[in-house]
């Protein structure tokens, strides 16, 4: 049974009709008194609570009632209904333990989805599964690892993937956030629909709207044709908003609106469009800290992190390093046609103790470099040491960048790939210009956004500057 708490008869009726049609039993309560009475008689599966249910529109009554409900039935999922004007209230409510909030006027589909998601998530959390069980039940084919922390994460992903709950994935650069985002989509009912990735760190605030919501012809000088935005492309599927911590305040508000109402208007158009998308976000920043410093909207934070998973750094799961290396080498065997390629047991042991600040991406790139530059079939610790210890090469680069006597010379043909050279040049320019992205881009003769894309690709850390 779903309990609807609202003193507006029109809302009571429309919500009751909606949920009865969806097959739920429904009861309604006008306010605190009725609510306590209903709760004494039976236990609902979920409560829908209008925060502005009384004439007093401050919402204090709503918050007080929410707290009372939490005392009476602590684990009961509660979804709040608020007006746009009182979204702060919803945030207060989330802090007080509500599971989700919906703004008026709501989209019926979205509200029903939110209720079903909260009900699914309210079921008892199963214990973490072992790797074999996980592989039997879900599709995690390209995610290697057996660390207990990772298995917890995969269990959570398997459990929440079929719901529509937004998922926030955090973790240092290169820890596999994108891979986990793909796994959420692959294990959901939306798996045959689009998975659209957007790197918010690489989109300027001026392009944000047109990129995400699209534009109509003539919306601005260069808009020669209509353009479909990423949200529309992701309709029925999932949208992966990477680097969400990099979003400027103006864009945060625009994003909140679409996440809230599932509606938006393309630039230059006054016609609203509605989309049905699953939201998956990732960041390597500490969003809670950003919220407390006023750099990230609290309402947006609560909107995106119904479920959050934090990926461990590779140094927190060194036991997985040999598994990862073996997996990468096995893939490269096929790619480079070297069927006898393998890694010596000593090298695997040595690799386990390597500091890898760039995490799995650094390990993967380093293994590929090692495979390319070593001719033997059995890769030794020495081979990896030469190609994988970026720390050492970064220091060497730093030295050479500031050294007037340094004579630039090209590496011998065959000793380095073009991509490797590009990587080294970017690293060197970043060191030389002390990570000032605008200067580095100028020195390399590319645009800032082209540089951001490459920094992302190579997992080189940088600070955003406008
Ligand atoms: N568990 C894993 N098993 C195998 N490969 C992995 C695993 N985790 C990550 N990788 C590989 O490491 C690389 C980096 O992963 P990914 O791009 O998902 O990291 P990320 O956390 O999203 O990084 P960033 O924050 O820099 O965007 C990718 O090539 C990915 O395929």
From TrEMBL:
It holds the Pfam family HTH_8. Residues 1-119 form the Response regulatory domain. Coiled coil: none annotated. The modification 4-aspartylphosphate is found at residue 50. The keyword Secreted does not apply. This is Sigma-54-dependent transcriptional regulator. SMART domains: AAA, REC. Residues 143-372 form the Sigma-54 factor interaction domain. It comes from Spirosoma flavum. Keywords: ATP-binding, Nucleotide-binding, Phosphoprotein, Transcription, Transcription regulation.
